[in-house]
Specification:
76 residues, mainly beta, 42% strand, MoCF_OxRdtse_dimer, metal-binding, SUOX oxidase
């Protein structure tokens, strides 16, 4: 399966002040495959940035759960 991901912070519809912003979420894949990268776009897909994955890397073939990620970015 392709990697699936969800944003958990900021919440949908939240007012975000200009300046530094932390975007957080989780991602998962299928078949015991590890999530190795999550790319995030804050401008409707024009540009993408790699988020930082949090936690330990599982043994190969043992990645059955989701992984947390976060990205520090400037909010316009």
């Amino acid at each position: 399966l392709p990697v699936q991901s969800a944003i958990t912070q900021p919440r949908p519809g939240a007012a975000v002040p200009a300046g530094e912003l932390t975007v957080k979420g989780y991602a998962w894949s299928g078949g015991g495959r590890e999530v190795v990268r999550v790319d995030v776009s804050l401008d409707g897909g024009r540009t993408w940035r790699a988020a930082r994955l949090k936690g330990e890397s599982p043994r190969p073939g043992r990645a059955w759960a989701w992984v947390l990620w976060e990205l520090e970015a400037a909010a316009p």
